Amino acid sequence: MEALTSKVCTPCRGGIPPLAPKEAAYYLEQVPEWTLAGNAHHIERTFRFSDFRGALEFVKKVGELAETEGHHPDIEFGWGYCRIRLYTHKIDGLHENDFILAAKIDAL
Hints:
By secondary structure, the protein is α+β, with helices and mostly antiparallel strands. It is built from three helices and four strands.
């Protein structure tokens, strides 16, 4: 199994079905800190920090990574936390790209 962090996100133009729950569960094994949610519609994870600045700096790093990969998460953050939700908007569900980005976020 090739590590997700060694892959790059590929542009999704739509027209394909999202991953089935069983397929999503396979990828989830490679990013075990993430949670499969919304009937396998998206994955999410909450990161904890000791203050607002730590969360803000993390959000900046995630934003730069998202721009590099061309794949953009939904991000919510505040004092001491950052919650990230990933899914592919073009197909309104999960794609391998979501797991690639999750693995790269974990590596930050």
